[in-house]
Amino acid sequence: MAVTGPDNSALVGYVLSLGDDSLVAAQRLAEWIAASPQLEEDVAVGNIALDLLGQARSLLTYAGSLEDPPRTEDDLAYFRDERDFRSVHLVERANGDFGVTMARLLFLSSYHYELYARLQRSADETLAAIAAKAVKEVDYHRDHATMWVLRLGDGTELSHARMQAAVDAEWPYVEELFGNEHLDPALVESGVAVDPAELRGPWREYVAGVLAEATLTLPDVPPAVTGGRRGVHDEQMGYLLAEMQHLARSHPGATW
Amino acid sequence: MSDLQAGGGHGAVPVTGVPARGSAEESRRDWPLWEVFVRAKRGLNHVHVGSLHAPDAAMALRNARDLYTRRQEGVSLWVVPAASITASSPDEKDSFFDPAGDKIYRHPTFYDIPEGVEHL
C-alpha cells in the first residue's frame, strides 16, 4: 500500500499509524481512571492518557486534512472500522494488572520518546511541530513508567514476580513497534518520516538499563504474530472500538 | 515529641488514639502523607497548596506535579513528609496568638510618612 503520489496516501498511512497508536493507548489507559491502586495514580494515568489523546487528535486531524475529500478527527476516530486502524497490538490488548500497564507504558513511551525526538526534525513542518510538543509529554510518561517498574521490580518478592511476568508478557509485542514494512521508503528518504527500525537500538539501551536496575531479567522470547499496521488486530480491539465508538455512532453529530 | 501533625492542609490533626477505619483506609495508610508547596513564579515564596499520598519522595514530587501544577501553577515544587512537620496545637491558640492582639506598637503605624513618598 506504500505508494507515493499526489494522493498523499503514503503520508496519510504513516500519520494514521502514529495517531492510532496514541488514540488506542489513551483509550486503554483511561480504563484505569477510578480503578487505579491509588487516587494519585488515577490522576497520573489520566494525565498520560489525555496527553496521548491530544497527540492523537493532532495527528488524526492532520491525516484527515491530507485526504481528498478531507475527513475530520472524529470521522477517523469514530467512523473507521477495525480493519482501517493502524495501531500496534501492544496498545490494544486488554489491560492486565497495574504491572502490565506499567510495562506496556515503559515500552511504548520509550519508543515514543526516541520517535518524537527525531520526528521533531521532520521535513514535514506539521509533523515536526506535533513531535516537538509530544516529546516533552512522552519524556514524562517514560519517567513515570520507569519509576514504577523500578519500584515494583526491585520491591517485594511478590511485586518482583508480577513485574517480571508483566515484562515477559508484553515483550513479544515490542518488535511490531520497529516494523517498517508499512512505510514507504521515500518518506524516510525525504526526511518526512522516521524509520522505526532505527529506534530499536536506543530503545533497547534505555529499557535494558531500567530492567537491570529494577533487578528484572531481559526476556528472551520470540515476537508475537501481529499485523496492526496492516489492520489485522487482536480480538480485543473490537471490544475497545465498540466502547469508544458507540456513543458517536448511536448519536451522530452529538456534542457535549 | 508532639502528637500533632499538619493534616492535609487542614491544620493540626491528632495522629494517636484515632480509631482504625475500613480496609480501603488501611491500604492508603501504606503510603505516607506529603505536604505540597508550589512556587508560582521566580521571586515568590513556595506556598502550601495541599497534600497527597505517595510511597516515597520521588513519587510524591511526581504526584504533586500531576495534582497541583496541571494548569501551569508553578515553576518549582517542594514535598515534605507531613510527619516531619511540627504543628501548633489549637489548644494553645490563646497563649500562642492572642497576646499579640493588643501590641499595637509592634505595627509600624507611629511614623509620620514624609510627603511625596510613594509605595509606603
Q: Give the structural class of chain A.
A: mainly alpha
What do we call the CATH topology of chain B? Ubiquitin-like (UB roll)
Instruction: Estimate the strand proportion of chain A.
Output: under 5%
Largest sheet of chain B: 3 strands, antiparallel
Instruction: Count every beta strand of chain A, where a strand is a DSSP E run of 2 or more residues.
Output: 0
Number of domains of chain A: 1
Range of strand content of chain B: 15-25%
Alpha-carbon distance between the termini of chain B?
43 Å
Helix content of chain B: 10-25%
* Spatial strand order of the main sheet of chain B: 4-3-5
Summarize this entry quickly.
Chain A is mostly helical. Helix content of chain A is 62%, strand content 0%. The longest helix of chain A has 29 residues, at 125-153.
Describe the protein.
The complex is a heterodimer of chains A (256) and B (120). In chain A, helix 6 (125-153) packs antiparallel against helix 7 (157-170). Chain A has 256 residues and is mainly alpha-helical. Chain A has ten helices and no strands. Chain B has a three-stranded antiparallel β-sheet with strand order 4-3-5, with helices on one face. Chain B has a two-stranded antiparallel ribbon with strand order 1-2. Chain B is of the alpha+beta class. The chains are: A mainly alpha (256), B alpha+beta (120). The A-B interface holds A 38-40, 43-44, 47, 143-144, 147, 151 and B 28, 31, 52-56, 58-59, 62-63, 66-67, 70.
